[in-house]
């Protein structure tokens, strides 16, 4: 296979950010120090939440939300299948059951009508994903949750800075999580952040991430069976600097989507993401184009392979969770996931990162359209 010249994603770390990390390394406090406090304060302020708890990954953050909301064996949690597998895994980790519900083909987010139809006496929560950074229909979902006394967890791992009717996503529900893996809008290498307006959730999450210590002053007193989900001071220093320029990062990423849109618009073989939405702001995580109905999964795979052969990194976002080998033992049949399977077979994530050049975008679009033309109709 050819070396990748234009990657699917690339972190954007400045010299000043490298220096901020190095500065921490010259101090004696490499964990649980002032950078953690500052990063949490900045994240809470940015989102407009009362509390933020930094953790070592988005997955850890989601896991703590499940535990802090007391979801466990015998409980069902509604979650999309068209998303990253961690969203379902954290439900399984606490022996609860993920109940996959189909998405709306226009937004690629949970379809509220189908969510309501999937509620049973065992349903405890809806794990809402803001897919690809586009805010989910929170008005409808929160309304459903209120009527059925369900908790709402927002998986905002792809959506930092996304806005829904003037409110940043994350703390619209009971608790939400951001992630800082290197392919996300901002990165700490590995990392995550829980945001919530619920003081009890924040206190319990803070204890659980630190081996169940109720009071960090008492290092060997553990009030809960917890985890080591801590984020180091170096990572917090990086996250703090990245968060300081998140607005310019989001603007830049929106500019890249406009470049793609301009090049690909009008191609009848492609459905492109909507660039602007009346309900708020998209925080662009990835740029995903979808092949039209006449194409099948193997056509999509051939196009992805052709692009990779030319050194262009592409992704199949998302391979539905319910089709993953790890999920074949879940009780069946489940709710129809027709849209999830249809979209999952036809999606292509194109190279998308802050510093991608207009020339690279143009090349990706030309090669993509060549590869589509090479498929016999
Ligand atoms: C990235 C991501 C996560 C968490 O990822 P980590 O790698 O654990 O930080 C969770 N859910 C979704 C939808 C994601 O995209």
Describe the model.
The chain is α/β, with parallel strands linked by helices. The chain folds into 2 domains: 15-100 and 109-244, Type I PLP-dependent aspartate aminotransferase-like (Major domain) (Aspartate Aminotransferase, domain 2, 3-Layer(aba) Sandwich); 246-373, Aspartate Aminotransferase, domain 1. It is 37% helix and 14% strand. The protein has helices at 15-25, 34-47, 58-68, 86-93, 112-117, 138-147, 199-209, 233-244, 246-264, 297-309, 338-344, 358-373; strands at residues 51-55, 76-80, 97-101, 123-129, 151-155, 163-164, 167-168, 175-179, 192-196, 270-271, 280-281, 287-291, 347-350. Strands 1-9-8-5-4-2-3 form a 7-stranded mixed sheet, with helices on both faces. A 3-stranded antiparallel sheet has the order 7-6-11, with no helix packed on it. α10 (297-309) crosses α12 (358-373). The longest helix has 19 residues, at 246-264. It binds pyridoxal-5'-phosphate (PLP).
